[in-house]
Amino acid sequence: MSQELFSIGFVDVTLLDVVDIAIVTAIFYRLYQSLRNTVTFQVIAGILVVLGLYLFTTAFDIRALNWLLGSLSDIWLITFIILFQPEIRRLLIPLLRAPLFNFFAKTDITETIDEVLDAVREMSEKHTGALIVFSRDRNVAISTDTGVTIQGQLTKELLISIFNVKSPLHDGAVIVQNGQVQAAGCILPLSLTTRLENQNLGTRHRAALGISEQADVLALVVSEESGFISVAEEGRLIRGLTLDQLEERLRESLTLENPQRERQLFSFGSS
């Protein structure tokens, strides 16, 4: 039995109650931080309005409307999970990154990062557009059915040749797993965000945001127009990185402090 801390009227507040309230508050705050300024937040607001109407009709015994709203409430949970699957996944990503979930795996992707950096350096100088996405979740499955199977070792030369404008596959996504290019010409999901900091986002940047919104990844973009380097992570886009900043960010996000942990590597290209 938890010891009582204080009372509010006839309600006794215990230490367990305080912890319970703190956990619920943290969950709702995290949810708000992830969904604010999005269409999803507006949808949730609409659901809360409907829920409020349901409670109102229940309190004042408005039977017909209460029955209708009650019927809708039976499918709210399923609807919520379907509509907000990407957002729910993004909320769980920080938990899945904890060492507890990745303790037994091991892979060093330093060589892969070096190959990617060399390729990005040349593509940035020549304004060759590219999108490279590193997956940090061993359970992330990105279909290769929409592309062409490659099954080749990842090298600077292979990436540059695929993203070359004369390549028939340069406009699609290139998927790389465990240092191997698995497929090219695949299709990525686009983010609903079309403008950022009063600037329109191109297809590559929207694709980088889209995949980062739906999976635990770090997406690297080389702009075809400017040669600028950008990174998308957890639904946020950082633009105008230098090569040194990019290397620091890649090694910080992808190189494991614990050598017994494993993460797989994916790479994509989009127009």
Tell me about this structure:
The chain is an alpha+beta fold and 271 residues long. 45% of the residues lie in helices and 20% in strands. It contains nine helices and eleven strands. Strands 3-9-10-11 form a four-stranded antiparallel sheet, sandwiched between helices. The protein has a three-stranded antiparallel sheet with strand order 4-6-5, with no helix packed on it. A two-stranded antiparallel sheet has the order 1-2. Strand 5 (173-177) and strand 6 form a beta hairpin. Helix 2 packs across helix 3 (63-73), helix 6 packs across helix 7 and helix 6 runs antiparallel to helix 9 (243-254). The protein is elongated, with a radius of gyration of 23 Å.
Task: Give a summary of the structure in a few sentences.
The chain is α+β, with helices and mostly antiparallel strands. The protein contains nine helices and eleven strands.
Write the layout of secondary structure elements.
Elements: E1 4-8, E2 11-14, H1 15-35, H2 39-59, H3 63-73, H4 76-83, H5 85-96, H6 110-125, E3 130-135, E4 148-153, H7 156-163, E5 173-177, E6 180-186, E7 195-196, E8 199-200, H8 203-214, E9 217-222, E10 229-233, E11 236-241, H9 243-254
Antiparallel strand pairs: 1-2, 3-9, 4-6, 5-6, 7-8, 9-10, 10-11
Helix pairs in contact: 2-3, 6-7, 6-9
